Amino acid sequence: MTYLKRYRIDFLIVLGFFVLPLLLFGDVTMGSKTMLPVDNLYQWAPWTAVSPTAVSSPQNPLITDLIIQNYAWKQFIRENISTPTQLLWNPYLFGGVPFLAAGQHGAYYPFSALFLILPLSKAYGWYVLSQLWLAGVLMFVYGRVLGMRRSSAALAGLVYQGGGYIVVSAAVFPMVIGAVVWLPLLLACIEKVTNGARNRARATWLWAGLGAVALGTQSWPGTLSLPFTPCW
Questions:
Q1: pTM for this one?
Q2: Mapped to the 3 state alphabet, what secondary structure does 166-190 carry?
Q3: What is the phi/psi pair of residue 98, to 5°?
Q4: Number of domains the chain contains
Q5: Which of 10, 107, 119, 170 has its CA 20 to 30 A from that of 128?
Q6: What gap in Å lies between CA 170 and CA 175, rounded to an integer?
Q7: List of residues 6+ apart from 25 with CB closer than 8 A
Q8: Is the pLDDT higher at 61 or at 83?
Q9: By the 8 A CB rule, do 176 and 224 touch?
């Protein structure tokens, strides 16, 4: 009971990191809207033939990749997940191209399970919500590792969670937001390892292992350039 009281404030902060993005993305998670820019499809055949008269031009043509590329990848995974060997090869591009080996699809990323469980029209909203929550939580952890007070670490988490790069990436690049949210945990592990090496703490190896997991997880969403950045 004492343990629960000790971390009650931390639990409320972690919960708060979930509630705030839910308010921002409530329409595309709990509501009837979707994050997919479906109206962008009306720019090309055969969708132009069934374009509603109200849709004269897309709301934002710059985020088309999400519907013509990422959505197609996720749909291909859903259709072939029961026979995983079918995911090795994508026959729908040119004369066929490797699929799983390409990596950018994000099929290996644990949070991509949302795209298998939920309808794709809703999965993108919940995926973004989960990543924004994770960004806030992991930055909070990093702040506490640096010795910040709870309030300061929570503020750092909110700033990172609502940062322009993350929020903008969430709109069109699920692979980017899925990688960048793990950076605070990686930095926290580096901080613990360097301090542990100085103090010869036994926990150094545990933090090193956790850092390796964080670095590896960064590569699963599909943006390999981001894991290479901290290594460099």
A1: 0.90
A2: HHHHHHHCHHHHHHHCCHHHHHHHH
A3: -60, 145
A4: 1
A5: 10
A6: 9
A7: 35, 125, 128, 129, 132
A8: 83
A9: no
Note whether residue 26 is domain-resident. yes
| 50-79 confidence digits (pLDDT tens) | 777 666 677 888 888 899 899 999 999 999
Under the banding of pLDDT at 50, 70 and 90, the label for residue 99 is very high
User: Rounded to 5 degrees, what are φ and ψ at 50?
Assistant: -115, 20
Handedness of CA 81, 82, 86, 90 (dihedral sign): negative
> Is 127 inside any structural domain?
yes
Residue 98 pairs in a beta bridge with 89
Q: Which two tokens stand for residue 122?
A: 């809703």
The answer to whether residue 198 is domain-embedded is no
Residues 183-207: b if buried by 16+ CB within 10 A, e if exposed: bbbbbbbbbbbeebeeeeeeebeeb
Rounded CA-CA distance 158/52 in Å is 40
Residue 129 within any structural domain of the chain: yes
Range of the domain at 109: 2-47+60-175
Q: How many helices (H) and strands (E) does the chain have?
A: 12, 2
Measured distance CA(163)–CA(32) in Å, rounded: 26
